[in-house]
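Example for tutorial group B:
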């Protein structure tokens, strides 16, 4: 499947936007499951909102620095692969890998752990798993939606009737004269 630069940009923006929109419900659910104060739901929601905004900003940095070129390379590698499912799976896998590497790097740089003697890279799996899953779903869905829109536009263009005045000029109706 070929893609244009505009379609690529649309896919990147859409994947990031889906991830950003998904961060609040993911952080709120994660907070409710692993610990938030049940007596302070408003504070838990504000805390979840701050984590969600932080995750969206970090994801944007990862997308702009690493995801964009890797996504472009992956798209070029998949040019001759026809099944859309293969493209969706490949971009979902790229989202998973980038999310884990980004979270692991952040945890390693900040020394964040899930407590005790748990190393940051293990904590990245424990605490980052919801975001890794979300990134995979958002990346695959962003590509799937973009591909559907592009294919629909291609079909519309192929089926569009010719515009009036653009057709071939009418053939002359005069009969050729005969010379004797």
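The residue assignment follows.
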């Amino acid at each position: 499947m070929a893609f244009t630069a505009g379609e690529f940009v649309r896919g990147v923006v859409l994947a990031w936007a889906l991830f950003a929109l998904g961060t609040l419900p993911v952080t709120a659910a994660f907070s409710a499951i692993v610990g938030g104060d049940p007596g302070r739901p408003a504070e838990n929601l504000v805390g979840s909102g701050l984590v969600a905004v932080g995750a969206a900003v970090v994801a944007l940095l990862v997308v702009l620095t690493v995801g964009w070129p890797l996504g472009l390379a992956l798209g070029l590698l998949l040019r001759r692969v026809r099944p859309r499912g293969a493209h969706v799976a490949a971009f979902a896998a790229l989202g998973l890998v980038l999310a884990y590497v980004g979270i692991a790097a952040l945890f390693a740089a900040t020394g964040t752990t899930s407590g005790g003697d748990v190393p940051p890279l293990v904590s990245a799996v424990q605490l980052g798993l919801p975001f890794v899953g979300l990134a995979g779903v958002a990346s695959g869905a962003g590509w799937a939606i973009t591909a559907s829109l592009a294919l629909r536009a291609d079909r519309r263009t192929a089926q569009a009737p010719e515009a009036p005045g653009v057709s071939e000029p009418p053939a002359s109706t005069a009969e050729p004269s005969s010379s004797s």
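The first helix runs from residue 5 to 34. Compare this with the pattern of hydrophobic and polar residues in the output above.
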